[in-house]
Amino acid sequence: MSQAQTQDAGREGSAPARTPRWRGPGIWRRGVVVAAVAVVLGLIMLLHAELPNRVGNLGSLTETFLPWLGLLVPVLLVAALLRRSATALIALLLPAVAWVNLFGGLLSDKSGKGGDFTVATHNVNAENPDPVSTARKVAASGADVVALEELKPEAAPVYEKALADTYKYHSVQGTVGLWSKYPLNDARPVDIKMGWTRALRATVESPRGPVAVYVAHLPSVRVKFNAGFTAGQRDNSAEALGQAISREPVKKLVLLGDLNGTMNDRSLAPVTSQLRSAQGAAGNGFGFSWPAGAPMARIDQIMVRGVEPVSAWTLPATGSDHLPVAARVKV
């Protein structure tokens, strides 16, 4: 046998060349499960308002933590790359684009300079071990108006004394209070259908004109294994608060408080549909405020009507399980 024939025989007996895994029809067949999960994730983000609340308030629960669903995108990306699946990579575009559409605007710093009215709000926690220090830290923000929620009757005088040097005017109604550098008029409780007072309104006579300030602490929500997201009382109170705001005759209005819900939560629509979020309009990032140790949601809100948000931010931790939040607006 000649040398050429030997070489031909060797080539004929050798193993066939392997097709690279990123080529060929396999890249479309692999990763179907990853692709399916990506599509479902994207649809949840796009259609979150359609998720039913009939079973355990599933819709509101999902909307409360909706930004965190974005963490699944890089996890699915790694899975798609490991599977070398073009199908999964293309499917991942759906949740990625949906998340950016919903929350991409919050990633940029929208805060500006100026403004003439600074407000702050803080759920001080009824079990706060050091109310004096908490009051001083909030006052150090330089806010013209401070709202406090979850004031125990025995703790209210402590806060009043600690804030007296900075704020000449104040009103405490039930478990919420408002402190102001400017005169307060028509301070009164607001009925949010709880049986006791957890909301108030007052007119702050600012140098730029009157501003109606509402302070509210909506009922707590719970996530229970056998009942899901229990928020019925919170939802009823949100409806009552929304009705009170809709009847407010003062055109310039600021709402401060712990609403136990995020701006995405449909159950707060009676309130959020009438007002702008200061954090959303002029903040930097998500501004998560709860829980203080590892914030996962912004349930402490500053919302406005008839004034222009300039900047919004969270304040350093106090002895509470919530972070204080503040905003500066142009009246």
UniProtKB/TrEMBL annotation:
InterPro entries reported in the protein's UniProt record: Endo/exonu/phosph_ase_sf, Endo/exonuclease/phosphatase
Cross-referenced Pfam families: Exo_endo_phos
Residue ranges of the region described as Disordered: 1-22
rRNA processing found in the keyword field: no
Endonuclease/exonuclease/phosphatase domain location: 120-322
Alphabetical keyword list: Endonuclease, Exonuclease, Hydrolase, Membrane, Nuclease, Transmembrane, Transmembrane helix
Keyword Transmembrane helix: yes
Transmembrane segments: 27-45, 65-82, 89-107
Gene Ontology molecular function: any one: endonuclease activity
Protein name: Endonuclease/exonuclease/phosphatase family protein
Originating organism: Streptomyces morookaense
